Amino acid sequence: MGLMEVREVTVRFGGLIAASEITMDIEEGTIHSLIGPNGAGKTTLFNVITRVIDPNIGDVLFNGESLLKSKPHEIIKSGIARTFQNLEIFKLMTVRDNFLVGEHVNIDTKLTAEMFQTKHIQTEEANSNTKAVQIAEFLGLKNRLNSLTGMLPYGLQKMVEIGRALISSPKLLLLDEPAAGLNPSETHFLKEVIREIKSQGVTILLVEHDMSLVMDISDYITVMNFGKKIAEGMPDQIKNDPEVIKAYLGESKYA
Ligand SMILES: Nc1ncnc2c1ncn2[C@@H]1O[C@H](COP(=O)(O)OP(=O)(O)OP(=O)(O)O)[C@@H](O)[C@H]1O
Ligand SMILES: [Mg+2]
């Protein structure tokens, strides 16, 4: 049994089947990559897992419990955090405040207790701030906590989004194309960051087009094409899978 089990998930958009009976087991403590050409259905599956969209058929189990009963805002409390393909951060807010948006989901009592500034809340806020500093150091943002996020280079803005996801201490972290738009040295840094997150016991589901990154860090890979799962296995198996090679050669971008 995996930490997350996607069971026969089908998603239709009108006549288009964006995901067709997708089954995928994500083992705890691994980096599991989900790859496939543009339009394969990868982000659609992320959106099902994070409850942004309902599947037409199928189920998603997390720790053995169906996630479909949860509301979208409860997902993060159950230990799942994500980043988005199109960077979703608050550009007019500081890096620190972007992090704290992610942290507030963990302070259950905040809205009511904050009015009274109880000791409990004061301690929690101090803890949040310590955590924000630690995460900033980890992501190369140590001197940027008070900077406006929109003023940072794009590569650092992407790190801010990862930081916001990490501050909720997720068990499962979903990254949708974290290397897109990064230069080689930023991509190298990202690789180290992902490895370090894994070494801290966080399970990672990674959608990424940078094949050298994927092959280098993945423990397991699921491949989709036109909404269907066409292969799964270890990186060496996937690299040599004729179906996978065919799917990618069909796209000029990869030829
Ligand atoms: N809300 C939507 N309404 C209609 N069609 C959609 C919607 N979201 C996605 N699709 C379609 O579903 C298919 C799968 O899209 P999806 O975004 O999941 O692909 P992807 O694998 O993430 O691709 P990419 O690598 O380009 O990000 C595509 O054909 C897309 O146009
Ligand atoms: Mg996508």
Structural summary, described in words:
By secondary structure, the protein is α/β, with parallel strands linked by helices. The chain has two domains: 1-79 and 170-255, Rossmann fold (3-Layer(aba) Sandwich), CATH 3.40.50; 85-169, P-loop containing nucleotide triphosphate hydrolases (Rossmann fold), CATH 3.40.50.300. 36% of the residues lie in helices and 23% in strands. It contains nine helices and ten strands. It has helices spanning 42-49, 95-104, 110-113, 119-138, 154-166, 184-199, 211-217, 235-239, 242-249, and strands at 4-13, 16-26, 31-35, 57-62, 65-66, 80-82, 172-176, 203-207, 220-225, 228-233. A six-stranded mixed β-sheet has the order 6-7-8-3-9-10, with helices on both faces. Strands 2-1-4-5 form a four-stranded antiparallel β-sheet, covered by helices on one side. A hairpin with a 2-residue loop joins strand 9 (220-225) and strand 10. Helix 2 (95-104) crosses helix 4 and helix 2 runs parallel beside helix 5 (154-166). The mean pLDDT is 91. Magnesium ion binds at residues 42-43, 85.
Features:
9 helices, alpha/beta, binds adenosine-5'-triphosphate, four-stranded antiparallel sheet, binds magnesium ion, Rossmann fold, 36% helix
Along the chain, the helix and strand elements come as EEEHEEEHHHHEHEHEEHH
The major pleated sheet works out as: 6 strands, mixed
Give me the CATH superfamily of the largest domain: P-loop containing nucleotide triphosphate hydrolases
Helix content: 25-40%
* Number of H/I helices: 9
> Which CATH top level class of the largest domain fits?
Alpha Beta
